[in-house]
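Step 1: inspect the first sequence and its tokens.
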Amino acid sequence: MDYGNSDDSPTVVLPTAIKILVAGGFGVGKTTLVSAVSETQPLRTEEVLTETGVGVDDLSGVEEKSTTTVAMDFGRISFGDDLVLYLFGTPGQDRFWFVWDELALGALGAVVLADTRRLADSFPSIDYFERHGVPFIVAVNCFEGARRYDLPDVRLALNLDPEVPVMLCDARLRESSKEVLIALLNHVLRSRGSRVEAESVPG
């Protein structure tokens, strides 16, 4: 019996898998964005805030927040048939930053979510990705009641390099979150002459 390879055997092409981080300060909307855009049930590692965090967790501006991510959020979204993004939401509090190095391994790029009420909370994420050479964009999450600033003012306040994209978003909305991920991919792939279009992402 002939067990040799057949030229008629079908070729299986697996989609390219890309790891993306979603980072930012405490309560900025990382879990919300991953949940809004993921095509599968997202994995969450949230715990209820307790009295233990009093004096440690800064709730100014997000007083209504009752839970926090202690390890990561995880979701997935496909771009056509040949590209899959795996989204890892990082914990926002500095007492959980020891997991960042593990989460960042193999990441192609990152989204830094920003809240104009607590803009300084974005600096640790920005500094981390700059130090580790991870391409990133900044997405300003538009919270209700928060003051709106012009994007050039946000760029100046965060001392961003000119090539770092800055955009507005609503992390609660799937379409808005998709646009953030597309902007990141295009930022990362621009040097390769590639581009991702919104139409390639399932609705």
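Step 2: inspect the second sequence and its tokens, then contrast the two.
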Amino acid sequence: MAENVWILGIHMTKFGKHPDLDTVDLGAQAARGALGDAGLHMRDVGVLAAGNLMRAAASFGQQLQKQIGQTGIPVFNVANACATGATALRVAIMAIRAGEADVGLAVGVEKLSGAGLLAGGTTKEQGDTWSPQGRFGAVAPLDGRIGTETMPGVFAQIGMEYGHKYGGADFELFARISEKNHAHSTLNPLASYQKRFTLEQIMNDVMVAYPNTRPMCSANCDGGAAAVVVSESKLRTLSLEQQRRAVKISASVLTSDPWQEACQVLPDVNTLTRAAANQAYEQAGVGPDDLDLVELHDCFATAELVHYDNLRLCPPGGAVDFFNSGATWRDGTTPVNVSGGLESKGHPVSATGIANIWEIATHLRGEAGDRQIEGARVGLAHVIGLGSACGVHILEKAAA
């Protein structure tokens, strides 16, 4: 049986606009921060997994090495949509579990401020009659016909579908989810935005894709995050303080879409998330009721609602009642997105997966300051990237 893997050091930069820093600068800031937090140096690292999406062919990991130290170790450059950072961490974890290294460094970074709507207008001009063409023609996105390629539109459809199926998910409810996350953000100094909004302000702001107004959408921004992971045998050679602050990775899961009798055009964010959650709970030996906090992928307010259900935080179809119970607020039974979520913290896509894990780890260490969830011992971090990929990690506080 493979030995346990632990987070020894983790760091995220402040998310926001960084016009004077490029991708490598942000990555180096995150990597050095994680190494410093771990009490290690680049010479101690046996494998580097580097995540960057917008410049996926640019050998980001090798560029990063030139700034933080070239030691000849293997470098894995990772691009996996919004799950890029979580995938980079998964690569480092697998290398340690395989016995290839005792120490791994995972980095995710993106420059996205001012990028606008992602993934829109990517299809070529279409005639009046659609017919499948080419290898993927039969399942090609039909932008402007039966769906949309822009992310606000995709997730608006997903939320509306949930409301249509189960009822109760109206415009105001989605706005209240956003209200919660923006309220949480006021306690997070690393969030891109730290402003509380009233429900009226959220509902009367610019409509992006009904029912998502501007404050209900994740913010494109710049940022980086990094984690140093170690084997349990390596951890036991380190100081008692390093062992005390280490966070156990009880589950690390990455899924993609299974084949199913379903629409092959509109994306399905539900099936692979449910599969990832089920595998993670089984791997960690815990259930949803054991979670003290959750950081989930709220790229839009509509997405947060459906993922309550997908992550089994509520009974099937019970996401509306779960939110209305107050469970997801900081003082609720299952606090969700205490960081402010992507709607406030921001969403530099390749950094997000590790940044969500940073939030959980910081609470488990008891180092979250004013937003600390007291007594937190188990937390879940979730991220999803269309394409599709879903990463779920369950973390536990060190027993020492």
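Step 3: confirm your contrast with the notes below.
The two ends are 22 Å apart (CA to CA). Residues 141-145 have pLDDT under 50 and may be disordered.
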